Structures are given as structure tokens and as C-alpha cells.
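*Target chain*
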Amino acid sequence: MDDTPILSARDLGFAYGSIVALHSVDFDLPAGRIGLVGANGAGKTTLIKILLGILHPTAGSATVLGFDATKDMLDVRSRIGYMPEGDCLPLDVTASDFVAYSAGLAGLPRNAARQRSSDVLTLVGLDEERFRPLGGFSTGMKQRTKLAQAIVHDPELVFLDEPTAGLDPEGREEMLELISRLGGFGINVLVSSHVLGDIERTCDRVLMLDGGRVLRSGPLSHLVDADVVSVDVIGDISAVVEHLTAAGATVEASGSRLLVSSSDDDPFRLVRDALASTGSGMRSLGAKTTTLEDVFLEGSGV
């Protein structure tokens, strides 16, 4: 995958009067599916509005697909799609007419816009409902319609703001599956969500914000895949720790439980040798599972 950034920021800042929403934000995000995560008030919505050209930064700069988000707004907006969080659909218009209108706004001729509307509504599972007024749609159907209008013009990048908000479990699963499929159509995705499990399901890279600052940024696999072994020891804990440390392992102890990692060797092998050498036993042994929530809580100091 090309590592050329599709989104970047340098010393980016924004303030609502005396309230600072973004503090010296820096990042470079390559093509793919990117998760923008953080608690409410972390600065996610402010950042998206700056990238869309709706807000102008009070400090620093941001680029989208190589274009300045402030100076080149038309170049940016002609290449992106946006699925807003709020309920903003015209209720007396059919899904077909609304999505076709959205395609027309992006420059598609009338007939092409109609065809694209039909194709995209079928893609998101609204083929049979596309001629119904949006006012009669369920929350899940409205979310699908918003996704359809965001991708109907085949953008290079689409911003999805809380795409699973208000959905029941079945609707959430269907939306996450649709988001996962977008990469197959050559569409890059930025998913903004406070539901960390949704990001783990759909994205391959994450940008974490906390209090308007970048907490973590990088490939999701590098953040959540920790080569750490958890072992519950029976016997002399201190002897096991001493043996592991001498072998070059990093050890965290909590009671009889040890977390063991090593950058140079297989931690499972090191644990096995330490237990054998010290004559110790174990109650359990396995890989420690690190979630995106663990990373966020650790980084935010919670």
C-alpha cells in the first residue's frame, strides 16, 4: 500500500473563543481505513470540520489528498464524501431522488446520477425501499441512505461520523460490514467513533485524540497486538522473575501473575525455561490480549 499521506496535519490548533479544542496536532495518515477515536469532547468533530473546510484552523495547517484543507476547499470537496452523524435527511423525498440529487451536486449528468443512485442504494441494501419517502425509514435505513449519498459520486476518501449511532445489534453488524467493503471499491475511509470495538472491526490504522491532543497514531496491529505472555505461577515467584530478567525478558508482576515480553526471543520459550529451571508450576499460561480500549485507557492515564 502506498504510504503517501491522504491526511496530514502540522501543529494544527483550533479554539472556540477561550476553549481550545485542538492543541498542536500532528499526524500523517496513509491510504486505507482509518479510525478516529476519542471520548466525547476529544476534538474529533472539530478535526473533521477542519478537514472538510467547514472550520479554519486558528493555528497550523492540514492537508487532504495533498490539498490544503483551507486554501483548496473545492479541490478537496470534489474528491471526498461525508456521512454526518445527525438526522439531516429531507423526510418528504424518496431515497432514490435524494441520492440522485447528491450525485448531481457532484457533477454527474442526470441519467448517470439516476443509475448511480440505483446502484449504490442496492449496494447498501435499500434496493426495494429506494422509492419510499425517507420520513418512513427506520434509523438503520436512514444511516444506509446517508452512506449511499456519501459514496454515490465515487469519492477518493469518505468521512463517516459515528456511522453506527442509534443502530440495533443487527443494523450495527450490517453497517460495519458495509464499511469494511468500501476499501474493495478503492475508497479510503475515515471512521469517527467513540465505540472502540467498531474501529477494531473495520479499520487498519487509528488516530487517537484525548483532550484535543494526539494520544496515539499508527497501524492498528502495532497498537493492539502485543507479544506478551501471561502466566500464573505456582512456586517461588521471585526466582522465576530473576530467571526471566537474566534471560533478557521484561516482566510485570502482580501477585502470582506475570506478564512477560521480549523483543529478542519467544516469551513462551522463556517462560517454559524459567519454570523448568526453578522447579515452579503454573495455573494458567497464554497470550495476553490487548484491546484498543486498553491502549486508550493506558495512554489517557485512566
